[in-house]
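Re-run with default settings, no changes from the original entry. Doing this only to confirm the output is reproducible before filing.
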Amino acid sequence: MQGAATTPCTTRMAQVVRRGYQRGLMRRVIRILGIDPGLRRTGWGLVEADGNRLIYVACGSLETNDSADLGDRLVVIHDGLARVIDEFRPDEAAVENTFVNANAAATLKLGQARGIAMLVPARAGLVVSEYAPNVVKKTVVGAGHGDKVQIRMMIGVLLPKADPQSEDAADALAIAITHAYHRRSLALKAARR
């Protein structure tokens, strides 16, 4: 409809519809899958966001055999994440961005694991968001350069029932928490488009 005039009434209706959408999006309980991709261990963590309240659901990690072929290791990650999604039925997913390090081959392999970590939830129909490691640390710890001990401590404060058995699972919970806090701004941006 090129050239169609918008009246104050139609503009107002669009605003009301968008606000109603935003309210509905923020009011229902959302189950979030956080994924910390890695070729040796991929952590996963699930939380539910009920308004500002966070509820621990589950967490764990998928381990691959270091001596297996790369393709076989990626299949382990794929199948494990598919089982998690099938069992827990998350509404949204969040994955940590990778950082580039001095070893290009290791960065490339990590990128392949991250690709699987993004593909599996996307194929299941979930919206997949990405967060930089510093954003995750700043959201959970309050500083962009917090260490693993601080993250685990804050996981215990924010999710008292959580007891992650690995750093990867704790990091995945931190990613899910980050998405729970940042998803509101993402939804508002999307509604403005």
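The first helix runs from residue 8 to 27. The longest strand covers residues 53-63.
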